[in-house]
Each structure stands twice: as C-alpha cells, then as structure tokens.
Amino acid sequence: MPRMSWIRGSVIALIIAVPIPSRAQAPPAPVEEVDAFIKSMPQTNPFSSEADVQQGRALFQTHCTYCHGANGEGGRGADLTAGIYRRGGRDPELYTSIRYGIPGTEMGPVRITDDEVWKVVGYVKRLGSQGLLEKAPGDPTAGHAVYQKSGCVNCHRIGNDGGNLGPELTDIGRRRGVKFLTESLAKPEADVPINYRGIQVVLKNGQTVTGTRLNRDDLSIQLRDTRDNLRSFLMDNVQEIRFDKPSLMPSYGAMNKKDFDDVVAYLNSLKGAQ
Ligand code: HEC
Ligand code: HEC
User: Is 63 inside a domain boundary?
Assistant: First the structure.
C-alpha cells in the first residue's frame, strides 16, 4: 500500500468529522467514502509479529496510557480490555480510529508513522482479547436507584431523560474507566471537560448567575444556568466573570460506601447503543 499522504489523511479526517444525522434512512455519502477508504487499505495487519506487538506496547505506553491507563483499563479514555469497539474492531477500522483520532471526542490523531500505527493496532487487539473486562465492585441495579434518589438526573441525561447542565451519560461506561468514574463523583473538579467548566456572571445590578459557558463575543455572553435555562447577557450589564468554581457538580465523596460503589457500577454498565 502506498504511504498515505498527510493531505489525504486530513481530508479523510474531515470527512469523518461531518456529523451524521441519527435518523437518516440511508447512510450519507461521507460514510460510504470512509467505508471505501477502509476497504482500500490492508485488511489484515501487516505488522503483527511478536516483535511488532512489543513495539506497539512501547508506543502505547508513550502515547495512549495518559488516557487509556497503563494496561488499557481505561480512565479518561475508554476501557480497551473489553474488546468492544463502537467504530469497529477489524484491523483497518482500529487503524483508522488510531491514525485519525475519533472526531468529536477527546481522542485526537496520534503523531507516529503509519507503520507504527499498525504496531499499536496489534497491541490494542492483544489488550482487547485478554478478557480483563473491568468490573466495578458494586451492584448496577441498586446503583440505578441511588442515581434516581441522588438527583443526578437533574443535571445529566441518559437516553431521553434528564437535564443538560452536565455531560450526557448514556454511554459513559464505554467512554470512561472505573477509576475515572470514581474520581468524577468524589472529586468532580479534578478533570472537567472544557464545555462544562463552571462560570459565574456578576451583573452590575448585583445579581450573580452561575452556569456553564455556551458562548461569548464582544457584546454578550451566553450560559446555561443551574436550572437548565439558556441565558444571555449584554456585556454592558456585566460587572465581572468568575471561574472560581470549575465544576458545578457537587462532590459525592461523603456518600456511604455501598451507595457509592453501586452508583459507579451503574455508570459503568451504561454502554450506549453499540
Ligand atoms: C486525550 C485522551 C486520549 C488519548 C491520548 C488517546 N485516546 Fe483513545 N479514546 C479516548 C476516548 C475519550 C475514547 C472514547 C471515545 C468515544 O467513543 O466517545 C477513546 C477511544 C479509543 C478506542 C475505541 C474506539 C472505538 O471504536 O470504540 C481505541 C481503540 C482507542 N481509543 C485507542 C487509542 C490509542 C491506541 C491511543 C494512543 C495512540 C489513544 N487511544 C489515545 C481518549 C484518548
Ligand atoms: C448540579 C448538577 C449536577 C448534579 C446534581 C450531578 N452532576 Fe455530574 N456533572 C455535572 C457537571 C456540570 C459535570 C461536568 C463537570 C465535571 O466533570 O465535574 C458533571 C460530570 C459528571 C461525570 C463525568 C462525565 C464525563 O464525561 O467526564 C459523571 C460520571 C457524573 N457527573 C456523574 C454524576 C452522578 C452519578 C451524579 C449523582 C450521584 C451526578 N453526576 C450529579 C453536574 C451535576
């Protein structure tokens, strides 16, 4: 296969980035182009000797453990030990996810050579076939009840239910590992996704409005307040904008241990639509 040029790579990345309407009857053209691209490359990994996998492991340590954990158990990034991939687990599909990153998520393209990407693919497959599926210690069914009674639903959406102040959790168990979920509940301010940083707008009339920032230009600022209302203020009326409460989520570190473990198990069980 000819080495893919950088420009072609960028074009493909752009194609993948085009949002796909969820209710579309037939897949739109860009999806077909991505399919065609995937079909045009080697269908089985050309670098899959034991030495290649070991090199893939070293590359993984450098470029991926930051989000996926030292053993691929997940953290800020998905658990890779389950061998379940939303964008497909065939060699060319994994190659595409790793080469170009996953548009619309925190995972960006990796800066290594094409041959090295194949070696990483080999290691990722090995991780996924070890059956180390991370299991949270609690009981997901009991955790669902804890979720309901703790008011999580006011700020988070699962499927069609819930509020929008915090990130949607429909597939949180696939996107994040158990350790990250535990930390999200105990220390919400530790790792706040950029779109959900808390801000406070202090108005000249003395009123303070807290929420997450949606937009800002020279004339106005828009936010989603803590009651899930969209609000807009003219900068002329704004005295000050403060960022001293990075997360608007309360800490649940003081919850009793069983409820805490159960709600983590419930979150871990939310894998979204495959
Ligand atoms: C900045 C954090 C970050 C880094 C660095 C990162 N990833 Fe990811 N990765 C994620 C997140 C978040 C997801 C889940 C995306 C989603 O589906 O919403 C993910 C998903 C994946 C998936 C699953 C794709 C699927 O089809 O479900 C694979 C495979 C993967 N990453 C491999 C890697 C490899 C290999 C590297 C290193 C070259 C890497 N990632 C680096 C954050 C990261
Ligand atoms: C007052 C609103 C509010 C309540 C109540 C709330 N959250 Fe959150 N949550 C947020 C916000 C805002 C964020 C994003 C900032 C952050 O990561 O701390 C967040 C982040 C999270 C994350 C990390 C999501 C990600 O993609 O990184 C998880 C998991 C989570 N919340 C679970 C829960 C659970 C479980 C409960 C109930 C026990 C709960 N939240 C209650 C507002 C809330």
Answer: yes
